[in-house]
Amino acid sequence: MSHCLICYERIVPQVTWTNLLLPVKEAIICSECKEKLPILAAPLCEGCGREMTEEGFCADCLKWQQDPQWKRVPITNHSVYPFQPFMREVITTWKYRGDYQLIECFQEELLHAFETFFYKKEESLTLVPIPLSNDRLIERAFNQAEALALLINKNIQVEVVHALTRKSEEASKQSKMTRKKRLARDNPFTIKKQQSKPVILIDDIYTTGMTIRHATKILLESGCPKVTSFTLAR
Fold it and tell me: What's the pTM value of the predicted model, to 2 decimals?
């Protein structure tokens, strides 16, 4: 009998004719925690990927499209989960408290969503994880965006390239910034490796979209033909 990776309660498997006759994959999170991690459901915004009541672009994306600085930086983001309170708790434990194993909780839905949105829809897939600064990497012991990219790579065999790096002077935690400060910050990225093929940016959370826009902008300016993004939560 296993324990839930999130709440640590014992997982009691339900006995059905199916799992009596056929081998069943062992659950890693309990049914109660699984219910608290709903999947984003269509219709979704064609820009940022948030849930909507109708098809098209959300009001926030329409504003971005009218902004003189950003209207030429097209964003197409797909996410797996809505960033609600329980997901915030799980990501906080995974991201800031070093519980790396929690990534297994997302594996099934993450891979399913990636295959739905991207796999075999592009001739060549290149994943570019959003980089951390050296200080953040030392603090957290791992880059959560890279962990997600490597999880996809391990199961679907797509290339992972570290095409971006963060400027060393960029030290402020974005999670502590107000929306206004996030929108006003300079581009924190520089190009490490130019990309001549379409790129899928990988990150854990899409909040204001500023990080994705900065990364997209610098990749496009360096000659990358197309940039989309895939994030764990929106």
Answer: 0.88
